[in-house]
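Would you mind writing out a protein's amino acid sequence and the numbers that encode its backbone to help me picture the idea?
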Amino acid sequence: MAHSYTPGLRVTPFATLQRRRILPLKGEVTVRVGDLVSRDTVVARTELPGDVATVNVVNRLGIEAHQIEHYMVKKVGDSVASDELIAETRPFFKFLKSTVNSPIDGTVESISTVTGQVILRRPPKPVAVTAYVDGRVIEEIPDEGVVVETQGAFIQGIFGIGGEAWGKVRRVVESHDSVATPSSISTDMGGCVLICGSLVSAETINRAIAVKAAGVIAGGIHAGDLKDLLGYDLGVAITGTERIGTTIIVTEGFGAIAMARRTFDILSSCEGMVASINGTTQIRAGVQRPEIIVSRPPSPSDREVATSSTGLQIGDPVRVIREPYFGRLGSVSALPSDLQTVESETRVRVLEVALDDGEKVIVPRANVESIAL
């Protein structure tokens, strides 16, 4: 049987997941293997070195570099406050005295007798890494972090902005193809992850930001609205560092696209539960999808479907990612082995997709992505 490997995304009501929680530089791990953690549990912490400020003391005092230590009031390692005296001359006539004050709060890091400059460093910045999801620590990485395992609903999106957040799942619309409006979002939705169905506009997102919603999940968004929200054109490298106040995850693509019914149904079934979300998206090497995780214990009806790397097979669920069937869901119904001529008059490998409404269409294999259910 012919096979086709097609990258895709996962949309499943139940999965076992592991998340690495790593510090940006070595520090202290605060939990141990076997510990149960919640999403806001600090699992590791460290301190980032503060920024530095350079002060040209020799120019300010009018002295030679090799003389600098004689005129310093503060020594290496001493703490300083903003505008505190750090160096001065000691002339016979006091009105000829020159002084140098610290421009920052911090410590004296170095005094150079070669350049005549003093380097001050601001206080270190504490950094704490949380578990992000409810689960159990299954691995400790000494001085760096841990791996947390969780179980629950897992949905990957197409695109997102904003970093990690969490909040109770709240459904804003009644169906997967409904459009949320600003009036759909009430003030009691602050801190919630809002399920907005189909297209979400800049006005609706601004309303979500105003009520301090943790996240907005929708089928599609207009590229122009995204630019208006950010104030600039988004690049193609990686997202996740945007600070607009609310994490946004798009499950289908750009434009007016209904959220996949299965995605909407899974999210609706999680209403009232707490979801951990991350809008970080990387579309080049090391692809990273935005994600929604709703941690919960397994129920008797839950089962995991093992994902396979052997490629697409008949019956596998897929999403069409090119026009004229863009955003449509279905399953593979045939995998012809021969090349076929498509509308562009090129000969490519194709597959037959049985769309959810029963229609069967022929599309290039490059025009679909697999969905791991």
User: Anything to note?
Assistant: The mean pLDDT is 89. The chain has three domains: 8-46+130-295, 52-121, 317-372. Helices lie at 57-61, 68-71, 202-210, 223-230, 261-269.
